[in-house]
Amino acid sequence: MSESVSEAQAVTQAAAVVTEAEPEPEYDPAAPAPLDVPRTPTGNAEVDAQLERVADVDHLATDGHIEVYEDVHRGLRDALTALDARPGPPGPSPTHHQSRS
Fold first, then answer.
1. What is the pLDDT of residue 77?
2. Per-residue pLDDT, 26
3. Is pTM beyond 0.85 here?
4. Of 22, 29, 82, 89, which has the most beta carbons under 10 Å away?
5. How many CA atoms lie less than 13 Å away from 77 in the CB half-sphere?
6. Which residues are within 8 A (CB) of 72 and not within 5 positions of it... i.e. 6 or more apart?
7. How far is CA 98 from CA 89, 90, 91, in A?
8. Contact between residue 42 and residue 48 where contact means Cβ atoms under 8 Å apart
9. pLDDT band at 49 (very low <50, low <70, confident <90, very high)
10. What is d(CA 53, CA 8) in angstroms, rounded to the nearest whole number?
């Protein structure tokens, strides 16, 4: 029975050493933490690239988020502006709207 007691003591001592050697990290609310926000592809490569850029905040402290968000906002605004600059389909011809009086 003394062998079982000494084994139990050895395990307890080993656990105490491991606990002392590895203190739990302190909670830091500003430390990087994944937001785990799902990002669904839109089919537009420029927009999808900007949405993927949002994932960069998962590895930054909160004070670094604003730079990423501003960059993404700028990129999305540029992508929308580019859509407005594309020529659309031709409009109807003027003869189409003439009245038949």
1. 96
2. 79
3. no
4. 82
5. 6
6. 50, 51, 53, 54
7. 21, 18, 15
8. yes
9. very high
10. 52
